Amino acid sequence: MSQYKREDRFQRIKSQVISPRETAEVALELIRNEGVEAVTIRRLAFELDVKSASLYYHFRNKDEILALAATVALAGIRGAGNPDRPWREWLLENTVRYRRALLVYPDLVPTLMRRHPLHIGTEEHERAVRLLEQQGVPPEIIMPLFDSLESLACGSALYAAAGSAFDRSEAWKDDFPAMYRVSTTVGLSDDEVFERAARGVIDGLAGPA
């Protein structure tokens, strides 16, 4: 291929208008409906009606697209709610919102486990740290709070996704009567259980209010 043709092809690829946000939204739709395995450069190019080479011009690999998709899916969650509320309630609300988003996109959890090297939500974390410091939260417990609550939310979302099609009560009814008995007497919803667990993490690390 001549130098002229190579440059002409590069200009055509470069000129294809690709919106990073639209790419992320298409990726999120694929993840929600078909799973993260459906997110490939070829499939995204087809859905966006562009050439695969054009996507490679804007994104180095699939990881970059997944990182952007996670950023879009979780935009504003870390800073959600009224920051003038007591910090424990503010942080709990953020954690509940975070889990709620992960329940929609559990396939993003492996990407989010690498959120710091991938720079997902770093600016929001920075603002959240400053807010907690302003409210007098001891700096030595802020990252343990973030890490513990994120682990709890990610684990909860993965656990819910893995067990969504399993009716444990019926499965245990005949062979595991004790398990069946306690599984049918649960008095809390999954959301209530998570909220209590998250509150326990906050109070456990910060001490009594």
Can you tag this structure with a few keywords?
single chain, 209 residues, mainly alpha, Arc Repressor Mutant, subunit A, Tetracycline Repressor, domain 2, 2 domains
Task: Write structural notes for this entry.
Helix 6 crosses helix 12 (190-206). With 209 residues, the protein is an all-alpha fold. The termini are far apart. The chain folds into 2 domains: 3-72, Orthogonal Bundle (Arc Repressor Mutant, subunit A), CATH 1.10.10; 77-206, Tetracycline Repressor, domain 2, CATH 1.10.357. The model is unreliable at 1-15 (pLDDT under 50). The protein has helices at residues 3-15, 20-34, 41-48, 52-58, 62-73, 87-104, 109-112, 122-134, 139-163, 168-172, 177-183, 190-206. It has 12 helices and no strands.
